[in-house]
Design goal:
With 238 residues, the chain is an alpha/beta fold. It is built from six helices and eleven strands. It is globular.
């Protein structure tokens, strides 16, 4: 069900970019000329038009910045809906409602840990991109990013560039099925790994996003390690 008092617009697909083995970024422009107002880390609901697809929409994190002229989402082919979305041709339209969600750091959070599994990188990528000026100087960000292989890493070049650009950003690339020397770690993310890079776990704020098992396992592990539940926020992708 659509929530009241939210933007409800038709957007036209202008461009498609292959980001990883099975991930595509779609760039949309509003037919009305009126862009959505959103915060980094928020999501929209996409509805397909004019094709045999579910009448229900599906949530996708916004991966563009507010100041950009387009609205982009990055989609992993996981089922009928996402496959249909990835198969859209330039010029075709979708309905977009939103934005929704509050999965982003509060202004008062200055020591932040992002734990991402696969396509769960999308909200963190947008938040990190948005950190400039004072935010870049004040906020320490540690990103643990887990994928099966190097080919599965979404936004690889962009993340490497951000890692070089932002002095207080540290990215730990993790590959679970690929011994590529590029990676920093080669096992599933766990508390022992986190402690290797961070001290005093309960002094930080954690955001976990990815497949539901990935999210649940890390949430439970952090709690067992003594991290207060109020310091952990989660978002699972289905």
């Amino acid at each position: 069900m659509e929530l009241p008092n939210k933007e409800n617009n038709i957007f036209k697909l202008k461009n498609k970019i292959k980001e990883a083995a099975d991930v595509v970024t779609l760039k949309f422009y509003p037919l009305s000329g009126k862009s959505l107002i959103f915060k980094p880390g928020q999501f929209v609901i996409i509805y397909l038009l004019g094709r045999d697809a579910s009448a229900q929409g599906k949530a996708y994190t916004i991966t563009s910045l507010l100041e950009e002229e387009f609205l982009s989402i990055s989609v992993k082919r996981l089922g009928d809906f996402s496959s249909a979305l990835c198969s859209l041709k330039t010029g075709e339209s979708v309905k977009i409602t939103g934005p929704f969600g509050n999965f982003y750091p509060a202004d008062t959070m200055n020591d932040i840990v992002f734990l991402a599994g696969g396509i769960g990188i999308t909200p963190f990528y947008d938040v990190i991109k948005s950190f400039t000026g004072k935010d870049a100087a004040n906020k320490k960000i540690t990103l643990f990013y887990s994928n099966r292989t190097k080919a599965d890493i979404v936004f690889l070049k962009e993340l490497i560039n951000l890692d070089k650009k932002l002095p207080r950003l540290k990215i730990i690339f993790i590959l679970t099925r690929d011994k590529n020397n590029f990676a920093d770690e080669f096992e599933r993310v766990n508390v022992k790994m986190i402690k290797k890079y961070l001290k005093n776990l309960n002094s930080k704020h954690y955001f976990i996003c990815g497949p539901i098992q990935f999210v649940n396992d890390l949430w439970q592990s952090l709690k067992k390690a003594g991290v207060e539940e109020s310091r952990i926020k989660t978002e699972a992708f289905y």
